[in-house]
Amino acid sequence: MERIHLNLLPEEVRALRATKLPMWVSFNFFSIPLAFLLISIVVDLLLFILLLWTKADIEMITNKKNTLYPQRQEQKRLEDYYNSYKKIIDDRTNWGQIMNVISDCLPQVGWFYKFDYSHDEGILKIKGSFYSKNLSKGFTGRFVSCLNGKPVIKDMFSAINVKQITQRKIGQTQVKDFYIECVLKDKDKR
After folding, report:
1. Collapsing DSSP states into helix, strand and coil, what is residue 27?
2. Which pLDDT tens digit goes with each residue over 92-138?
3. Which end of the chain is more exposed for a tag (fewer CB within 10 A), N or C?
């Protein structure tokens, strides 16, 4: 049994249909939704791959953070330790330098016999003596003026007060005893 093909289309339309396109190219009702479905599947796969890649990166970063966190804590602890000691060293009083400046200001005819530092009061008490045949030369005043002119002393002390000057005789030599108080400026430097 053979089939008979009947084509009732006019010849102009038949001529247009003579150039056949492959079936996958031809337009039909399901081709547009099918194309969207294929594109959405490809996009979903790409997004899934990107998600897996991002999870792997997050896990790697978390592992690095967990290994670096104890090191960072140790670094912070050491920095705090360093800063606390640096503050102590920077703020401490260099008493050797201060005593050197005080002794350099003392005239050659003088000597110290007592230094007393009161930590609670923040006062350095200096006792000493001068000897001379002529005690009217003002050794105590020159000594205090010299101290007031030294930057180290100015930075450290707010006031240098002469508390007492007495005169006495040792054998044939006249001696003046002095008592001076130097008041610290900053209580933190004690």
Report:
1. coil
2. 667 788 888 888 888 888 889 998 888 778 888 999 988 876 655 67
3. N
Domain match, 87 and 99 both: no
Least Cα distance to 175 among 113, 120, 122, 128 occurs for 128
Sign of the torsion formed by the C-alpha atoms of 49, 54, 59 and 60: positive
88 and 1 assigned to the same domain = yes
Handedness of CA 98, 101, 106, 111 (dihedral sign): positive
In angstroms, the CA 130 to CA 147 distance is 16
65 and 4 assigned to the same domain:
yes
Helices within the chain (DSSP H only)? 11-17, 31-91, 95-105, 139-148, 151-156
Number of domains the chain is built from: 2
C-alpha pair distances (Å), 112 with each of 35, 90, 118:
105, 29, 18
Domain extent for 74: 1-92
